Amino acid sequence: MNYKGHLTVGFICFCSLIISLFLSPLHQTVYFKDMPLWFIVCLFGSLAPDLDHRHSKIHEWSYIGSIFCGCAIYFFTREVYQAMIITMLLLLIVFLLSRLKHRGITHHALGFIIFTILVYMAFHLMDFTSPFIITMFGAVGYLSHFAFDYISSIMKSSRK
Ligand SMILES: [Zn+2]
Predict the structure, then answer these.
(1) What's the 38 CA to ligand 1 centre distance in angstroms?
(2) Which of 139, 118, 109 is nearest to 42 (CA)?
(3) 134 CA distance to ligand 1 centroid (A)?
(4) CA of 102 to the centre of ligand 1 (A)
(5) Can you tell me the distance from the alpha carbon of 151 to that of 22, in angstroms, rounded to the nearest whole number?
(6) pTM: predicted TM-score of the whole model, two decimal places
(7) How far is the CA of 133 from the centre of ligand 1 (A)?
(8) Is there a contact between 69 and 87 (Cβ–Cβ < 8 Å)?
């Protein structure tokens, strides 16, 4: 629920992954122009598990984000019905996720696997050059959420 803490840890993970990519043999094949997208996907991943909480920032932002996604799809494809259907689907998913038990499925391995597959499929279907790298940033962001929740729960229990 502490979105600033999650964003900070997500940002640290993003920087670590960028440095690792630069130092790895992969750096010649990776398309670094996609970096702003990696940044957004990584930070989204770091907040995404809290979509199951009605009062979380990511939940509030996701309604506007879904509409923004629909507008972007219309802008690129000029397919008004496709853009409307995807927007409706995203809004429905955001709504349904907020009805789940907080720290339930989205905070478990299954939620992580579903998130990773969906991110990969979305960027693969949109024909991005390196959907695997984009997904890696999303996955690292998502895992950073678990790490931060775990550390803050330990700190809370040690204060008692
Ligand atoms: Zn959480």
Answers:
(1) 21
(2) 139
(3) 22
(4) 8
(5) 29
(6) 0.90
(7) 24
(8) yes
Q: Residue 80 Cα, ligand 1 centroid: separation in angstroms?
A: 35
Q: How far apart, in whole angstroms, are the C-alpha atoms of residue 113 and residue 91? A: 21
Q: Are 141 and 41 in contact (CB under 8 A)?
A: yes
Residues whose CB is less than 8 angstroms from the CB of residue 2 and which lie 6 or more positions away in sequence, other chains included: 148, 152
Chain segment 3-58, per-residue pLDDT in tens: 999 999 999 999 999 999 999 988 888 888 899 999 999 999 999 999 999 999 99
Residues with Cβ within 8 Å of 144's Cβ and at least 6 positions away in sequence, in order, are 6, 9, 10, 12, 13, 45, 46
Cα of 120 vs centre of ligand 1, distance in Å, is 22
CB-based contacts of 44, cutoff 8 Å, min separation 6: 58, 138, 141
Compute the C-alpha angle 106/130/29, nearest 5°: 130
Structure tokens belonging to residue 106: 């989205």
**C-alpha 116 – ligand 1 centre gap (Å):** 17
- 3-class DSSP state of 22: helix
- What spacing in Å lies between the alpha carbon of 25 and ligand 1's midpoint? 34
Cα–Cα distance list, 4 to 32, 57, 113, 145 (Å): 26, 10, 24, 11
